[in-house]
Amino acid sequence: MRPPKREINYEKVAIGEMLKGVIKEVVYEENHTFKGFNGGADTIQPAIKLKFELVGYQYLHSSRWMKFSLGSKANLYVKYVSKLVEGATPDMDLDLDCLKGMKVKTVWSEKGDFQNLDTIYPDGPKVKADALPEKPPAEEDLPPETHEEEAF
User: Which residues contact 91 (CB under 8 A, 6 or more apart)?
Assistant: First the structure.
């Protein structure tokens, strides 16, 4: 005897419509397996995906897993960072957690059983990239310490 087939119902979003929401989570995976292109070898690389809380929907909806790269042709950069981060440039030093809580407008598409995020726009100002912390000066660049006693 076999168990009955389960019917899995995923909450689907409206297709081709502008849906407002918030980026709730930025999920990282150190060793994600990406399927090889056209039957090529699978690769294991760091990956990232964004999870959205969309207005009018009960569950979080997420982007697909993307290679964790901000190169000029990387999906993460082209599709998300360049549109959501003020002054974005390829290969910039950016903590992607700065996107958490950002209000966005999204458009989704459907291919077979899968729904994918097609386009994303900020719903308000773009996020400002984190300013890089200043490097502490090298010891040889520091002024010499003086131990002068204060005169009373």
Answer: 70, 71, 72
Structure tokens, 46: 């760091």
Gap between the Cα atoms of 139 and 41, Å rounded: 48
pLDDT tens, 101-130? 999 999 999 998 889 999 999 999 999 876
Average pLDDT of the residues of the chain? 86
- Under DSSP, the state recorded for 77 is I
Residue 99's contacts (CB-CB under 8 Å, 6 or more residues apart) are 23, 26, 50, 80, 84, 85, 127
Q: b/e string for 112-136 if b means 16 or more Cβ within 10 A?
A: eeebebeebebeeeebebeeeeeee
**Residue 51 vs residues 10, 54, 87, 103, 126: alpha-carbon distances, Å:** 15, 10, 23, 12, 18
Q: What is the DSSP letter of 84?
A: H
Element (H, E) at 82: helix 82-84
d(CA 126, CA 118): 19
Strands (E), the chain: 19-34, 43-54, 61-62, 66-67, 85-86, 103-111, 114-122, 127-128
